Known about the structure:
- By secondary structure, this protein is of the alpha+beta class.
- It has helices at about 20-45, 50-60, 105-115, 125-135, 145-155, 235-240, 245-255, 260-275, and strands spanning about 5-15, 80-90, 95-100, 120-125, 180, 180-190, 195-200, 220-225, 230-235, 280-285, 290-295, 295-305, 310-315.
- The protein has one domain (about 5-315): Glutamine Phosphoribosylpyrophosphate, subunit 1, domain 1 (4-Layer Sandwich).
- It contains 8 helices and 13 strands.
- Strands 1, 2, 3, 4, 5, 6, 7, 12 and 13 form a 9-stranded mixed sheet that branches. The protein has a 4-stranded antiparallel sheet with strand order 8-9-10-11.
- The relative contact order is 0.19.
- Pfam families: Asparaginase_2 (PF01112).
- This is Isoaspartyl peptidase/L-asparaginase family protein.
- InterPro entries: Ntn_hydrolases_N, Peptidase_T2.
Amino acid sequence: MHPYSLVIHGGAGTILKEDMTPELEAAYTRGLEEALDAGYAVLEQGGSAVNAVKAAIVVLEDNLLFNAGRGAVFTKKGVQEMDAAIMDGKDREAGAVAGVRNVRNPIELAAEVMHNSNHVFLSGKGANDFAIKQGIKLEPDEYFFSQFRYDQWKALRDSDNYSLDHTHQGLEELMKDKKFGTVGAVACDMDGNIAAGTSTGGMTNKKYGRIGDSPVLGAGTYANNATCGISCTGHGEPFIKAVAAYDVAAHMEYKGMSLHDAMHAVVHEKLVALNGEGGMIGVDAQGNVAMMFNSAGMYRAMQKSTGERKIGIYKD
């Protein structure tokens, strides 16, 4: 049997133990465990990497703690606009959506785009119309409301500032306490096929229909059986400029680098040169995994068929 594995992330940034209550830390850990268990169960039962990725991300999207799906942050207009992408490394089929509203699980909509639209990337009203046509579950605005996200937006809404994700301090701490709220998963299944997916609510108080790296194939999400599956989390603009996810694959394909070394070069050299803060998770077709970040922390977890399992929040 081919070794199989799953890696997930729930965002990166200035995540410090001294800023975290034991209760909150336990809640984040529990959220990561639930998503890891959901995705890994698919692999254990012989399911595909794509379905494992989707299953893990759905659980993260349904958790208010993470900036995706139900926990998505407020835009300048006081609504949620969500982005997601999923990619199959076997044939490089992919689906992505940007600026969608009221979609309970944007990753499921991205998967519908991949399988049933003859397109790769849909946005805004068109993506929502497609969601309705495909019977994707929608929710009212109230479903996406959390007092915590609302208070965060209220502190910013009368300014031109934006926040890179949840802060547990006041406004004066916002830029110091950067958290890049994205969720993602990468998997290698029993057949040696790999997949990657990413989902996000973007930035609090974002304007102009801003879109980050998460739904952009090659920037925040990429999968190719010949190299790797990557899901990124960070300040999206530098990740787009660096074509970060694909750059890992390029290092592997053209330089013959391992997954770990290729991710290290991108996260700690290429992105740093562009002032890009954040991280990424990766898997290759041999089931090797890596979780790498240049920020203070990254919500992350992994499990392999060899029995190895890890859950982490802070720097080791």
